[in-house]
Amino acid sequence: MSAVSTDETLTPVSNSVKYDRQLRLWGDQGQKCLESSRVCLVNATAVGVETLKNLILPGIGSFTIIDSNLVTQRDLGTNFFVTKDDIGMSRASVTCSSLLEMNPDVKGCVIDEPLETLLDKNIDLFKAFSIVVVCLPVDERSLKRLSACLWVSGIPLMIPRACGLWACVRTVCRRHYVIEPHPEAVIHDLRLDKLDHVPGLEEFAEQQDLDKMPREQHSHTPFLLLLIKFLDKWYEIEGFKQLPLKYKDKKRFQQLLLTGMKPKEGNSDGADEEENFQEAIKSVNTAFTPTTVPVRIQQLFDHYNCLNLSSESDNFWILLRAIKEFVLSDDGKGCLPLNGAIPDMTSDSMRYIKLQNLYQDAAKYACACVTKHVHDLLRSVGRNSDSISLSEIRRFCRNSAHLDVICTSSLEVELGSSDLMQSSDSNPLIKCLPQAGENDATNLLNIYILFLAADEFFSCYQKYPGDCDSKYCEMDVSQLKTCISNLISKLSGTSSPTHFSMPDELVAEMVRFGGSIVHSMASFIGGVASHEVIKLLTNQYVPIDELFVYNGVTCTSSAFKF
After folding, report:
1. Model pTM?
2. Which stretches within 381-402 are classed as H helix?
3. Helix (H) / strand (E) containing 528
4. Three-point CA angle 433, 435, 441, nearest 5°
5. Helical segments of 302-427, H only
6. pLDDT in tens, 449-502
7. pLDDT tens per residue across span 356-370
8. R_g of the chain, CA atoms, integer Å
9. What is the DSSP string of 20-49?
């Protein structure tokens, strides 16, 4: 293994300035995860270096390129990190040197050995990485060996690939924890049906005498307080305490809010100028969401790993168990910890800050209760109470309503095992294939099947379909169809599967591509892959669960879960 470094001395820039834009996406915690990560790239192809480039720029800790190939004339047309002068040199060393110039904070090294040799000599080498990205061609046996090693170690494997105008990304991960999903549609946890969960909130609302307020103060009363005040009136009208949940009840409540608007003096038509009331009316559809534990969180509470903790349990399961015990305790009152966030609203500073403090104090109390449960659980399994940091507990409490665990199928299950016959009922990929007579060229799963069949073709003929003189293309079409048939037979465990037929036009298209990589496609799928890597490294945002396929011909894409 050899290290590669650059001779240029650059003026140091603080990370907060250097990474300002991305810090707004994943924060200090996400950046810390990136900077401590170790990424491995197998084969510095155009797709591979584009993926790695997009990880080096935001500041991963280090990377290792494993590639025994030399730079060839063919690389010049697709890989922007090699030049004509590099032909005949180590592709790993050349691309590593170019990539290191993009961010002096990142360290990189190369291993100029075939993957097969490394697996035989030191397979434990791969256990030191945070994630491994493999770009083909790699023989199936070596890919399965590597995947099995990473699977047992809980290290994600990503396989991005492109051919012509088609591309895909396959993620293999035994278990991935989503802690900060950053949902697009944010519904704030206001607890309007459980005001006692926010001590002092109900009393603060009672202090607001809307009838005696000057109009300036009236028009700057936070809509949250307006909802609480008018909920009291709603309960009096209805005769029982229940939020307006039905559509017609919400409409009636909005009409009730309209009656509370105060017009300007001498302007009877000025009532609609009170923006705070307009905000209250708009928020009715989301603010009255009943406070419950989401179904997905309840399923995780009942997960075996949550119910059976040990000293080897991941922090995620210990934290989740602590959340569960909080929910079941008198402190939690059957609800998840409050995250303490409130929406922006028209308000004077004093009352808005007061509301913020009330919700944040309630969130801090909930976090303190969860922290106590965490420490008790850690001691019960023989771990130090400080082995989970307070910042990690706070992060978990803030996102407790959106936690998730993603598990993909392994490559061994997908591609089948050479020593174990499997039936179509046990192969998850076969189950996703369209039935006889239902397949057409618009089904993007066909593209993935063609990629797998092209791998079979490469293992047989040491070239990709169509990578030859035009007079042999017809022969490649026929041989590729045979590879497809053999692939489906292997996956389904039957010698003559009849439920799947690949459209002829897609087979012809794969041969027409000739195994070539268009740089624009390599750049695109490299961007997609790097986004997914960052999600996996930071435990933020929701990664694509299993497979992403893109068709550049029709500009369509789809995600598949096997």
Report:
1. 0.89
2. 390-398
3. helix 519-538
4. 70
5. 304-307, 315-328, 349-380, 390-398, 411-415
6. 999 999 999 999 889 998 876 666 788 899 999 999 888 888 877 655 556 788
7. 999 999 999 999 999
8. 29
9. HHHHHHHHHHHHHHHHT-EEEEES--HHHH
